[in-house]
Design a protein that fits this description.
mainly beta; ten-stranded antiparallel beta sheet; 10 strands; 4% helix; 50% strand
Length: 140
């Protein structure tokens, strides 16, 4: 059974390591930037993009992968080993907000419904009413 809870990650160091950042990808940089992202993200990198590529290294939950942010387009792709999840990039909250919606029960039995999102630790959750709730596997 899956559930979700609010877990405060503010006291935890970010799990992101900058691989590269470009304010504007030049024609000369294009091939190198494309080689820095997972294969299914390569076609999305275009000349003129403002891109940051992060390596995701979360030893606490054992999550590794790549987070690519297109700052000028407000989009991001996160790949933690099972393909890229695409979504809007929320720069303020540092979340990838997918177009997928999910509904789960919180720890107090309340229903939490919102967009499936990923935080900077690579953790999948639900973004609802301005809050990121972590999806958890619970014993039945």
């Amino acid at each position: 059974m899956t559930g979700c809870d609010y877990i405060d990650y503010s006291g935890r160091k970010e799990s992101l390591i900058i691989v590269l950042t470009r304010r504007s990808v030049s024609l000369d940089d294009l091939a190198m930037v494309r080689e820095s992202v997972p294969p299914e993200q390569r076609d999305q990198v275009e000349e003129g993009d403002a891109v940051t590529v992060f390596r995701l290294d979360n030893p606490v939950e054992g999550i590794t992968g790549t987070l690519t942010v297109w700052h000028d387009k407000g989009m991001a792709g996160i790949d933690t080993g099972s393909g890229t999840s695409w979504g809007d990039w929320d720069e303020e909250r540092m979340l990838v907000l997918t177009e997928e919606f999910e509904e789960e029960h919180g720890s107090a039995g309340e229903i939490i419904m919102g967009r499936v999102a990923y935080n900077t630790h690579g953790i999948r959750g639900i973004f609802s009413r301005g809050t990121f709730y972590t999806l958890l596997d619970r014993a039945s």
